[in-house]
Amino acid sequence: MSMxxxxxxxxxxxxxxxxxLEREGRDFEVDSWxxxxxxxxxxxxxxxxxxxxxxIYELIQTELHHxxxxxxxxGVFRRGMLEEVMLEPGVAHAVFPCLDRLLSLHSRFxxxxxxxxxxxxxxGSTNNFTIDQLGDLLQEQFSGQNADEMRKAxxxxxxxxxxxxxxxxxxxxxxxxxxxxxxxxxxxxxxRRHGVQECILLVTQRITKYPVLIQRIxxxxxxxxxxxxxxxxxxxxxxxxxxSVDQQVLELERTQRLQEIRARLDPxxxxxxxxxxxxxxxxxxxxxxxxxxxxxxKTAGSRLKDVQVLLMTDILVFMQEKDQKFIFPCLDKPAVxxxxxxxxxxxxxxxxxxxxxxxxxxxxxYEIHAASxxxxxxxxxxxxxTVSCCPSREDFPLIETEDKALLRRLRADIQQKDREVLELxxxxxxxxSDLAEVTSGQEVALPHNxxxxxxxxTPQAPQAEKLLTEAITEVDKLSELLLGSxxxxxxxxxxxxxxxxxxxxxxxxxxxxxxGTHDQNSPVSKDKNGNQLQDxxxxxxxxxxxxxxxxxxxxxxATVIKQDSIVELSLWEGPCSTPTTPVPLSSAPAxxxxxMSRDAGLDAxxxxxxxxxxxxxxxxxxxxxxxxSG
Length: 630
Known about the structure:
Strand content: 5-15%
Domain PH: 288-388
Number of strands: 12
Shape: globular
Largest sheet: 8 strands, antiparallel
Subcellular location: Cytoplasm
Number of helices: 19
GO molecular function, one term: zinc ion binding
GO biological process, one term: actin filament organization
Pfam families: PH_16, RhoGEF
Oligomer: single chain
Helix content: 40-55%
Distance between the termini: 54 Å
């Protein structure tokens, strides 16, 4: 396909898209609610109500503008980069990281806001509205799974902000087709104010606007304590979310900075440390960077040397710059100073100086000077805080052996793959739910907080038995719905394999009927306010049960996968674990048995356990057997 035909198709697409964006914003073209409603309608409201509605209007209007910005980034810039300029998907993702997640989150939030606005319209009017309740929508947006997704998306987007802009400028400077594309799409009036750099900056700033808007809405909420309480709670939630995003951005930026420093470190650079051993550049990357800066190190000859200092998880690292590379200085003391039991003292009559006294034998004292008193105080405070939580050398050795480094990398790779599998399983559950909705025409809800199903209940052993029991319950209920009253409900099995003749309760509090009958004394389904719920149509309940079953079984699969990783790592890490030959099932270490099966109540001293209660959780016997047999 020629570039000209792509351009023609692109022009039609961009024109229709921009027209759609303008059409969606027509209800919020004016500056405020006060000017959007009729004057007679406005005069019927108190001053505080008018102020509150003005701020709510501003919230919806700015959210609409934000979604418009995201759609321009997606439908204009990213689409053109991929389809017209033919850039690699990785390049487009680097310029617009996690754009799909942001667009999904905010499009859903905007749809809820617009729906609430439409439900609040005065009878017979298309522009007069008063929103009395908004706190519930804000709480839903800034808590639970939505908050988790926003935290991840904004942390990633904001931390990559500068790199994204830098990459965009590089593309613009060297790629003629990209230059032509940007010039062409920027001709429209809407995109004159929405260039790539402007869009990226607007997205990074959006999350900081919510606390201000919610606070103003709260300040003008009078006489409605329930709404005020919801607003206060949502204000706390968004502030916590913003703080968490800031912290994650800071950590990601520190990680990126540490990688840059490592890249600039001379490959041959190394230095000896106290207690023996050689410290090389690779040791930096297994630590976290807490603070860095330029300080002056006073040597034995009373000379002050400029040094670049890294405050890390358990050490202070001193480096010097030479030929645009970092090296470890060859001075009178080691360039790597352990923080274990390090003493920090200021120097009398020298407001910019401090002493660092090591815990070595004999102790060594470093005299360090900062550029100002405030800078010195900042360093002292951060060093003292890091010393107070410094890990022990048993848990975190100063120098890592090659075998330990390899084991750590492999463990990290396994855990990363586990996380990727869990995310894919979660997406599959969501897709199954969507399929059930489309097929049945009924709205189907995912199980409460489904992401938690894909997390271990304990760090040692995910409780797959509970998931399996819930899945069996869903199968029983689903079978009854599908086959009707002629079904004899299967007898449930307890965890030890014995048959249990009691009726198994389902998640909504009802009991499974046997032979089509219900216990007359069984509790009636009620909502969270205690109101009696009407029975759902059979087709709708079948779909809901299918989704529940899908979620439980996928969670069980995730648990089995994680359990496999735990068993494999335990085999090679345990005190009696460095097997070089296959280990028979009957000779499995009792200690590992006990730690891996605490939830099943397995007594390791009893010898070989029954097949159904081996160290792996329910449903993972095969993987457990595979792990023990090599």
